[in-house]
Amino acid sequence: MKHTYKALTLTLALSLFTAGCTQNPAMTAFHEEMNGFYESLFAVTSSLNAIDPVSETAASELLVQVDQMEALFQTLAAIEVPDDFEDQFGNIEELADEAAEYMVEASDLYHEVYEDDGIDESVLMAADEYYSRAMKRVNYIAQYLQGHVPEGSNITVIENTDEPDWTGGDLPAQE
Fold this sequence. Notes:
By secondary structure, this protein is mostly helical. The protein has a single domain (4-145), classed as Four Helix Bundle (Hemerythrin (Met), subunit A). It is 67% helix and 0% strand. It contains six helices and no strands. It has helices at residues 4-19, 25-50, 58-78, 83-88, 92-115, 121-145. The N and C termini lie far apart (59 Å).
């Protein structure tokens, strides 16, 4: 829940980039929707960080914010990526869908943990893991939108080139 600085940085970067997208209405709409998403995400994560963990209402406040994040991530998954952008960064829609799925799972598990009488640590750990996976995908999207390719040991980047990359021997004869 410490990803607020990335959301703020992305909002600024998207604002600057959107200024150059006025020629393409689909691209402009996409960037406006993404700006809205990241601004809302910043607000929700700020609210999450502001919860007093020793407060008697901390659990219910957390669940309200998690529910807002779940709805926000469903909105992200519904944002249509323009063809021009999809050609350049092919898996933004897939990442958004995965992020939404992970946030749904995290929300369900957080509700299970905090609505029961006792806290099941294994369920809490699973909820935290799904939350982290969702946020990681949102950060990957942010990196793409800033013109960077995400890096890491668990990331595979497949370059899309116009030239065929045939490594399987001779091509079959064309008839």
